[in-house]
Amino acid sequence: MQSYPNHWEADVVLTDGGTAHMRPITPDDADLLREFHARLSPETIYYRFFAPYPKLSDRDVDRFTNVDYEDRVALVATISDSLVAVVRYDKIAPEEAEVAFVVEDAHQGRGLASVLLEHIGAAARERGVRRFIADVLPENRRMVNVFREAGYTAQQTFDEGVIRLTLDLQPTDDSKEVMRAREQRAESRSIARLLYPGSVAVIGASRTAHTIGQSALRNLLGGDFQGPVYPVHPEAKAVAGVRAYPTVSDIPDDVDLAVVAVRAEAVTAVVEECADKGVHGLIVVSSGFGEIGPEGRARQDELVRTARAAGMRVVGPNCLGIANSDPKVSLNATLSPDLPPSGPIGFFSQSGALGRAILQRVAERGMGLSTFVSAGNRADVSGNDLMQYWQEDPSTGVVLQYLESLGNPRKFTRLARRLAKQKPVVAVRSGGSAQTTPTGHAAGGLSLPDYAVTSLFQQAGVVRVDDITQMFDAAQVFAYQPLPDGPRVGIIGNSDSLELLVKDAAVRQGLKPHEPVNLGPQATAEDFDLALETALAAPDVHSVVVVFIPALHPISDDVARVLRARALESDKPIVTTYLARQGIPEELRHAGERGETLKGSVPSYPAPEDAVRALALATRYAQWRNRKPGRHPELPDIDRARARAVITRALDKDTPDEEDIAWFGGERRYDEETAVSGQDARDLLASYGIAAYPDITAASADEAVVAAGQLGYPVVVKADAPDLRVRAGGTFVRADLRTPEDVRSAYNSLADRFGGDAELVVQRMAAPGVPTVIRAGDNQSFGSVVSFGLADVTAELLDDRAFRLAPLTDMDAADLIHAVRAAPLLFGLPAGSTSLAEQPNVEALEELLIRVSRLVEAFPEIGYIDLDPVLVNATGAHVLGGRVWLREAPEVRPDVGPRRLRGVTF
Q1: Where would I find the N-acetyltransferase domain in this sequence (predicted)?
Q2: Confidence (pLDDT) at 668
Q3: What's the number of CA atoms in the CB half-sphere (13 Å) around residue 271?
């Protein structure tokens, strides 16, 4: 019976782009282990056991395959049901273990050892192991390099002819960077294998016109694919004039890529045949999988399991296919007969239905694609994989993504941020606003309005647009014009009406337009040339918008030549509204033949507002790319062990004590799975250096007076109940109480008002300041998110909040505060103050935001934190109230831990 965690089982990508399945060893692996050992060369056996060991004894096999998954753990890697690598550790001390691995000779050099070490290291840390000891023969340089290059802190000694390496398993920045660099190379290579096949088989090729199978075959042939194409048909001798084969196994030569166009029920059998054939990748255009419900989802999981186990990646199912315009391959493995010319744009679409329309729109605009992938149900290959590939693809300068969901949001934002530092990433995210609807806050979700989605994309460097039209508007600038160095825009035209439209649109988009240069309706090409020369030479002009309406005499071609010539020699972007033509008209193209990038072509838009909006997107992106990313400051008073203990204690409680409910966000409608008692909430925050103002529950006016004396005057008396938002100036708060009589009167007033519906507490009064609200938690589309706003009715009515992804850098925290419209209240003197010494301490607020972000990012059990109010005054940012909800954490947190592909049920 299985006695190891489910997340110890995973699919992984190897350095050559293939895949393997990794899992703990079991007694049922005895025969596989014997066969594996028999295939090892004498040299590999000697390196592993330091002696000849041609055959494993039954006793050895029993010892190697029977482990306790605690003090003795072994993981195996399998490909097509063959065991190809083993790694194991054996504890020799409470926090120390010996580790060793062996990889079959035929699979050495594929990165198996490195990924095995990552996974066994993660398993060991879960079992309390902090150090690995590895004894390696000096001549076994490959194994020595695996340990040395892992990124862990390592020590090395040499004794009696053996190198002893000691590895500290605590993850470091170096080890994380090594892991992510290997992940990037492996995933990039796996996509390259799909996009650069040497041969393609079409399984389900049909002789019937307009069927999926025939369309896939004809598009491959019509796209001038540079390798052999093999139709697979159970009966036909030839399809579309090309010799056909009954099964993929009957094809005499190697097959790199298979396009699968058979009915859904037959796909798994086809995948198994492809596995036996040694196919590298699959494009499953068939429907009838996850999109139809649970039965289809189970079929889809089986498809992915079978393919990955055999080392194959899968695009789809229910997809349009993939294309690569590189003349070396000329791959059109899609259901669309017409592809745009070659160009610098890489396009990923989750929607198969929209894919063909998208390709047509690209061609109509005169743009070119480097690669195109329609992933459909995205069962395996996702946009994240493509970002890994496009990062190093020299043919791709701009990345476009049509997204319906983010399967691994943390990984998406990490990869997008890294890619966007080099290449623009433009995304349309359909499916609404990424709003989650928690079942009350106890569900642990942080809901996001649509504007928050845009800001989170911007934080990661992604240019989010509303629709496909805006996506292509932006792509025209990014692909064919340089980025602007600033927001100042020159405006040139022969129509004062259009020029004023440009100016107004620029102001609305946050740009800084110069006064338009109106050349008049009779302007010639020479007039445009001189005006452009002057504008582009001006240091305070960062980009230029040209609006042109043809006069009575035909000078359109002459003006187009001027625009092209100036665009080619300028390092500033030029966009235009030119004869109401959209895209890159022939007149404005520098190069329009297939295979050329069209660099220097001038994007044209049917309306001035469209041109300005696209230019504004490019300007904001350029500003993001040029800004400093900020740093994660070292913070004192963070105790992760204490926080872990508090979370464990809180989740283990059956029900809270009555006194636990009274204060800091405890609530009477207690949900034992997620609600956190007041003291637990205090302790959890304190473990990350977040101090909450103390208060004392009072059951009578006399007790309130005693509490006030203990806390020190002045104090407030407030009602504490889950339905009440305890804020200064509310009807359930009595503030600035300076005498026992004040306290007694306030207490009696609130007691009469609320009766037994709310407990009354006494809290020391903070000095006047600006009340704010900090919320943080997990959003199903983006992971850990922090929100900030002011704590007043006006801010709530206007939904004046800002959002950022956790963990925050110092720059993120500052931006988060400045992003709310009411931010000036934090940077001006408080009402009635006369001294700069009373200025709100915004630096303390920034630190508090960073601490909260670190807390929610570190512990996936934290579903939601609500600090309300946080009073910011001259002495700091003071947490006066709040609530915390916990939840059971998932076994595997996306983008944390060793490399793995997105999971399916094993």
Answers
A1: 20-170
A2: 32
A3: 30
